[in-house]
Amino acid sequence: MAKRIYVGGLPYSASEEDVKSLFSSAGGVKEVTLVTDRYTGQARGFGFVEMNSDGEADSAISTLNGAQLGGRTLTVNEAKPREERPRGFGGGGGGGGRDRDRGGYGRY
Known about the structure:
Elements: E1 4-8, H1 16-23, E2 29-36, E3 43-51, H2 54-64, E4 68-69, E5 72-73, E6 75-78
Antiparallel strand pairs: 1-3, 1-6, 2-3, 4-5
């Protein structure tokens, strides 16, 4: 699998075709994924590009980092692996001492 490239600073109006067209100047583009807000569907201004080879990915990073698209300056670098985030709400804890909140009724 070729390197995944992070692309930040995208104009919200950019389409996958716009990004593919820009990156194809550096080599073959295998896939473009633009990240959108899961609730509104609006573009979030960043995405990922996968090139056909590591060499093409390196070329794209070196030539397109700092390039302009739609009047915005792009940040282009190697994508970092996604870190596992804990599921649920916040950290652990909770549960202990809750009876005090109710004045101690029903404890005995």
